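Good morning,

Both structures are done.
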Amino acid sequence: IKSAALTPPRARVQAPLPLGLRTARGEQRVRMATTAALIAASGSFAGAWKALGGSSIFFHSFKTLLLGRTIRTLEYSAVAEREGEYRTITTRALTLWHLRRAIARSLKHTCVETYPGATRPLEESDISEMAVWIPPGFTEHVRTRRDLRIIGDGAWLLWSREDVSIPARVTD
């Protein structure tokens, strides 16, 4: 049994060059031909990239990471005395926790009454229900990560502090 440490490394075998290319000038010609082939291949790639709309596809796939996604939020309240809070938020990462945190941060001056006489700032855990407004008068609940796909750029998101279900169909 031979050990790997005792065996000498194998020499890299190259195909012999034709007689006319064994000189320094011949090697230069081989390098130039290889470079020309690479330039031609990159040119055809660039042409295909433009023909398929590569830059616009690239921009739209990374737009939300770079610029964020703008979402309009409106508080839904079952209590008639309290008006809903309207805010526009921008989030780069679209998860349930990031949405709740962005809403809570945009309403940092709003206080929640814990018990009579005591208040605290709004937190992520206070947002119990979220739903996306779908025109002309429907809402789609956002409860799982899979539901986040329906939230587009510029979407309306209804949210509630109470454990009240946001209605699926809104009528006049």
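Second structure follows.
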Amino acid sequence: ELSSGINAEYGEAGVDGLRVGMGSGSICITQEVMAVGRPQGTAVYRVAEYASRFGVPIIADGGITCVGHITKALALGASTVMMGSLLAATSESPGEYFYQDGVRLKKYRGMGCLQAMKEGEGSAERYFSEQDRVKVAQGVSGSVVDRGSVYTYIPYLVAGIQHGCQDMGTRSLSDLRSAMYAGKVKFEKRTLAAMKEGGVHSLHSYEMKLY
């Protein structure tokens, strides 16, 4: 996350937008390796709260693994979200599918992984390591489960956000954000017991298909 001082300087300088997120992406290990970063929800809320004084939009980058996380990020003040791992699994994303243990997968790597740093200048520039003799990885390379076509997946995400607003009694994303700042929509800590009962439980077996 940007420090308070840098955030203020960018806002006062009239930047077009701020991307918020350090080490919260699925393929990022910055927080683990560098011990730098902040919980994504807190980071988005704090930066958006200040940037809104200058009319600067926020991009929530990292930690989005489902439609509910998109709704949370937007409610916390983000104007949009990055969905790297979600869209990387779609048919239209670069890369070939492969099967492992009967599951259809596609390769997905972070710009901070050693492979990306060595193969492309863009990755090294992003992490300010163009001239470094020793590269320090801040990401990993892995795989994601097939999500099908964006023509099916994106409408599902949009509908999910709409239903999220509906469940919270807000008519639009701007209303949702206003309700959050006014204290009408609140975020609360949840215990492990609450998280368990909020998911599927007490069944012998089940099948979950989201769309």
